[in-house]
Amino acid sequence: MTKLAYKRILLKLSGEALTGERGYGIEPLVIERVAKEIGDIYKLGVEITLVVGGGNIFRGLNSSVQLGMDRAAADYVGMLATIMNSLILQGVLERSGIPTRVQTAIEMPSVAEPYIRRKAIRHLEKKRVVIFGGGTGNPFFTTDTTAALRAAEIEASVLLMAKNGVDGVYNADPRQDKNAQRFETLTFEKVLSENYKVMDAAAVSICRDNGIPIRVFDFAKEGILMDIVLGKKIGTEIALNNECKLKAV
Known about the structure:
This protein is an alpha/beta fold.
């Protein structure tokens, strides 16, 4: 039997990660690859949950400024975008033979189940992938916070933050500083005190308070989810008792 580093995961995907070269919407080849990666670790017995952003369709904060919308209303539109992405991903996964359920924080019973923590856990025990759509159901919260909150609620072993073209957390912006170094490991306190732009502070605090490690990695490499669940040290790990260890890149 394959030894797993993580038995139950929450994978956070940005909406932008689904766009490929198009820069908007969903690139079919990209979402097919996402489904394959998930399918490969599903076959190992990993219990999988996901939170998908909606930035490939609509971004609440940016649009509230650009369109002059009320921020709360814009955030609700963004939540609906995450549900659209969730349903599309569900369709692709189920076509691949992976039983999947979408649960939404905004109730729409003709489309998906409402979010119920104990029911989500039961789905995992029955070997179903669970996708959490609709954010937290409240404006002013990001999908990063949703991911951290759901990870805590289902007692995930790890929160996997899949980035698009960013392979971890750096001590400086690698696009501007050629001497920037990537952290192999970091503490939650260091991330918060230095204001590293990994995810919003509320999400980091939830993971810290519940002892859930975060692994930040670039999703571009094929087979990377398999490598992570088998214990390979990829990207940057943020945890309670880590040292702040840099790696020259």
